[in-house]
Amino acid sequence: MVTIRAQGLSVRLGRYPAVNGADLLLEPGELVGIIGPNGAGKSTLIRALLGLVGRSGGTVLIDGDDSARLSRREIARRIAYLPQGQTLHWPLAVERLVALGRLPHLGPLSRLSAQDEAHVDAALTRADVLHLKGRVATELSGGERARVLLARALAVGAPALIADEPLAALDPGHQIDVMDLLRAEARAGSLVVAVLHDLSMAARYCDRLVLMERGSPVADGAPLDVLTEGNLARVYGISARIETNGDWPLVLPTGRTRS
């Protein structure tokens, strides 16, 4: 299992301070939603946790190890990553694309073992795309591609998963399927972190939400403790109704509080 701790984490993109002194502890068995308006620093934060962007200050510890001292391969074995908005350039068969998730475990010029192939088939099944085996990935619909790319992340077999906007391009049914899957991964003991824009989905599925504003976490806790009318007005500039339907909270934006 993987624990990630950020202490005073800061990132500058050129002159712009994208992440400002973030303190964050992410532990196994949690589904953590990272939320906030566009430009709040959500994607930069998770990329910094993965060592994909340089930090201007602070530390990131992965199971107590400074991520700056870990190789990209070592981090990839511990934390699978699903970026947002990936473009497919090569006409790979679906199963070969998903098999790329096994690269952190392979040596140079190594071939997939039977165990690797089993990981690939299991990932295809969990992402509900096993029926797409044999199809060319560049010929799939946007929603199908999104689920195949999720399967590639699952194929890594890492004890942690970070997903940046995993619901983008998915219809409502497959959004539910993906959130069910992410929650099941967390319930099985994995650390799962997801950047989300759908606040009702975040409230319904996540154990914990981290609300970002201007590069800093400004609220961190149980969904209904974070998704307050005051927080939504201050950070998103919206008025909203927050309702509960049994155990399913609903966040209903009703208007703008500022232009």
Task: Report on this structure.
The chain has 259 residues and is an alpha/beta fold. The protein has one domain: 3-Layer(aba) Sandwich (Rossmann fold), CATH 3.40.50.300. The protein is built from nine helices and twelve strands. The protein has helices spanning 42-49, 72-78, 94-99, 114-126, 142-155, 172-187, 199-205, 223-226, 229-236, and strands at 4-13, 16-26, 31-35, 57-62, 65-66, 79-82, 160-164, 191-195, 208-213, 216-221, 238-245, 248-256. Strands 6-7-8-3-9-10 form a six-stranded mixed beta sheet, sandwiched between helices. Strands 2-1-4-5 form a four-stranded antiparallel beta sheet, with helices on one face. β7 (160-164), α6 (172-187) and β8 form a beta-alpha-beta unit. α4 (114-126) crosses α5 (142-155).
Per CATH, the architecture is 3-Layer(aba) Sandwich
Uncertain residue ranges? none
**CATH domain fold name:** Rossmann fold
Largest sheet: 6 strands, mixed
Number of E-type strands: 12
The amount of beta strand, in percent, is: 25-35%
- The helicity comes to 25-40%
Distance between the termini: 44 Å
Please tell me how large the radius of gyration is: 18 Å
Number of alpha- plus pi-helical segments = 9
CATH class: Alpha Beta
Q: How many separate domains?
A: 1
At the fourth level of CATH, the homologous superfamily is P-loop containing nucleotide triphosphate hydrolases
- Strand order across the biggest sheet? 6-7-8-3-9-10
**Can you tell me the overall shape?**
globular
Helix/strand/pairing category: alpha/beta
The helix/strand series, from N terminus to C terminus, equals EEEHEEHEHHHEHEHEEHHEE
Please, what is the average pLDDT?
93
